[in-house]
Write a structure and sequence with these properties.
By secondary structure, this protein is an alpha/beta fold. It is about 35% helix and about 20% strand. The strands form 3 sheets. Strands 3-4-2-1-5-9-10-8 form an 8-stranded mixed sheet, with helices on both faces. The protein starts with 7 loop residues before the first helix and ends with a strand.
Length: about 375
């Protein structure tokens, strides 16, 4: 009998040495709120088996808010920020204690790392986080990353743990990212509706152009939904990290043979930490609208952006801030570091360099500070 053909993406995630595993709230808690010990132990069993095989694992875990609901006598996820933060403050302790006990069954030490998206947006914080993770992994610990919901604001309202996991994957130099949820794979539409088909492999971004992904998990306890998982998978794969999206109930299979779920192939060479930060993590404070010629120069020939190719400017930014570059249709095609303040540009846009004052004959965004984005 001929052995089944294993895709390069699945082979890459199965053999990866350093991995990031993200699990959502609905995969760790009961429908009424509160941790489900059986589910959590099953996840830890799978992660510990991967560690024993020689891999280093960083676990990005949702669930703090959901874990804090039952102890506080709250029957459903609150909508107001103060109660969410109160639930997180109780749930973070519960979650950390549960992980410490469960990993302790395998004599593994865990270290809690509380992050918000801001910690990977700010360059200094990003580098400090890199050093912390590096040391924890070198000491043989399993870092358990939880979004710091007690102090986060935007992150609680919009749910950013999937994106955070993709950012952490690049931050720690992971060889693969596993996104575990309450759905067993990526589907062309809502898997509960007739006609939705399972997508086993994603070789390029165009393979998921027609996918209709929901924004809220089926349980109502999480905040990300399949849309944020798909966005996180595309973000990581575009930066050179293969991804496996699978059901948390299939964690043992996903973390061993990787022959389940949906595999996303790495979509290019891995970016340096600075270029990844610039392209995907840093906050953009403005927008530059480009004509077709400038888009071709920036995207096709990797040239610097000059004032002649700009048609409009949005935002309030200063030289040194990160800005988005948009094509004539309004799609973001690149990000870069602005060489001028927003107030300087209106009088320069559309003008060739030889028609500008000598002290302004420089790039608006230098090629070395410009990152084209996968489309």
């Amino acid at each position: 009998m001929t052995a089944p053909v294993v895709s390069p993406a699945r082979s890459a995630v199965a053999s990866a040495n350093r991995i990031v595993v993200k699990v959502g709230s609905s995969s760790l808690t009961t429908a009424a709120g509160g941790l489900d010990p059986t589910r959590l132990d099953a996840l830890v069993d799978a992660v510990s088996a991967r560690v024993s095989s020689g891999s280093q694992v960083v676990l990005v875990s949702s669930g703090a808010i959901a874990a804090g609901l039952a102890p506080l006598g709250i029957s459903r996820r609150p909508r107001d920020l103060a109660t969410q933060q109160a639930a997180a403050s109780v749930g973070q302790l519960t979650l950390a204690h549960a992980y410490a006990n469960s990993f302790g069954r395998y004599s593994l030490t865990v270290g809690q790392v509380l992050l918000t998206a801001d910690d990977v947006v700010r360059r200094a914080h990003y580098r400090n986080a890199q050093r912390t993770f590096s040391r924890l992994l070198a000491l043989g610990a399993v870092p358990v990353v939880n979004e710091n919901d007690t102090v986060a604001t935007e992150e609680i309202r919009f749910g950013d743990n999937d994106r955070l996991a993709a950012l952490v994957a690049h931050l720690v130099g992971a060889d693969a990212l596993f996104l575990l949820s309450d759905v067993d794979a990526l589907y062309s539409g809502d898997p509960r509706q007739p006609g939705a088909t399972r997508i086993a492999e994603v070789a390029s971004a165009s393979d998921v152009d027609g996918v209709r992904a929901g924004s809220v998990g089926a349980s109502g306890l999480g905040t990300g939904g399949m849309a944020s998982k798909l966005a996180a998978a595309r973000l990581a794969s575009a930066a050179g990290i293969p991804v496996l999206l699978a059901g948390a109930s299939d964690a043992a299979q996903a973390l061993s043979t990787a022959d389940c779920g949906t595999a996303f192939a790495a979509g290019g060479s891995r970016l340096t930490a600075r270029r990844f930060w610039l392209g995907y993590a840093a906050d953009a404070t403005g927008r530059l609208h480009l004509d077709a010629g400038a888009v071709a120069a920036v995207m096709g020939r990797r040239r610097s952006l000059l004032a002649a190719g700009i048609t409009d400017v949005d935002g309030d930014f200063e030289a040194g801030d990160v800005v988005e570059l948009l094509d004539p249709s309004g799609a973001v095609v690149a990000r870069g570091v602005a060489g001028f303040d927003a107030t300087e540009l209106p009088s320069l846009i559309g003008r060739s360099s030889q028609h500008l004052p000598e002290d302004q004959r420089r790039e608006v965004v230098h090629a070395d500070d410009l990152v084209p984005l996968a489309r």
